[in-house]
Write a structure and sequence with these properties.
With 219 residues, the protein is an alpha+beta fold. It contains six helices and four strands; from the N terminus they run H-H-H-E-H-E-H-E-H-E.
Amino acid sequence: MFRSSIQRRLVALVLCALFAAVVGCASGPKPGVCAAIGGVLGGGGGVAIGAGTPDHDSDEQAIYGGAGAILGASTGYLICRAMQKEEAPPPPPPAPAPRAAPAPAPVEEKIVLRGVNFDFDKADIRPDAAVILDEAASILNSSPGRSVSVGGHTDSVGADAYNQSLSERRAASVKDYLAGKGVDPARLSTAGFGESNPIASNDTADGRSLNRRVELNLD
């Protein structure tokens, strides 16, 4: 009978400690707080269980109170630790892979081909024009994929029909010179514009000199 009474009280003490631990964990999954609350409640429950003994022995109450406090505190701590692990936030998603740097935009190749000028009523290449055409031939030979249109022009002196023919001969003269410097003739197209596209006034000698020209344009 005595042993059965002790067993009942021990079972009650364990249940009291579990209740105290659960109440402590209700404050949030903080193991230290849970342990403190569980210890206080468990100790109080243990004292109450000890007081329920027939002789109400104070030493027995102290024993049950201490056991209840230890059980309540340790159980509360362990339960809250488990809850803390369960409620731990998921790890952050992996950082996105760095984007590959965009390919640089292709640099547009710019080739400037200066025009050449002619003497009055002539289609012959002048020495100053030859220097310019030599430079143009070097550029074209280093850029084999580019073609050039060669446009001939005249000043306003003379008949329109004659000036048209003269502009065509000037364009052909420049094409032949470039071909002689190694430029593929298939890359060169010619056209004559006569006096229709002046770039300066035909009322002055200097203006007419500028208009007697051949222009080189990359296609």
